[in-house]
Amino acid sequence: FDHFQSLVGSGINDVFYIETNGRLDGEINGSGGDNSLFASNRKNIWNITGANRGFIENILAFSNIQNLYGNENEDIFKFTNYAFISGKIDGKSNLNNILDFSKHTSIVSIDLNKIDNIQKIINTTDFTFQPGNNFFCVVYIEIRIFPLKNFKPAT
Fold this sequence. Notes:
This protein has strands at residues 7-8, 15-17, 27-29, 36-38, 44-50, 53-56, 60-63, 67-69, 75-80, 89-90, 98-103, 108-111, 115-116, 120-124, 127-130, 137-141. It is mainly β. The strands form three sheets. The protein has a nine-stranded mixed sheet, with no helix packed on it. β6 (53-56) and β7 (60-63) form a beta hairpin.
């Protein structure tokens, strides 16, 4: 494709790939379905600015994208207040991929079953982890532990 301002997906699941030098002046709108966006192979700074929406700095904007995939380089996912991705976030490498909540002043809840290849989570004060098999280096964070009602350890 050449000289396209924007791309709009179908009403079903769509997958969008950004090539190495790919760029779009407009946005990718996933429309309906459960949509995925794969970043090009360079350091990417993702800005999540709303519900399943945001932009990759100097590359493109996106909306109605539920799943974000990094690449073989570092990926930083920055969240503004009340912004979220409802599906999966996968850094796709072990090269210092980061979830950055430093601009997020509301409570943060992360389902660890939907996070892969993320090495750091930074800068928030209210944080909730949901069960999963991931391990993280968490920096600049206050963790509050609350007793679990009716908790029974596995036997």
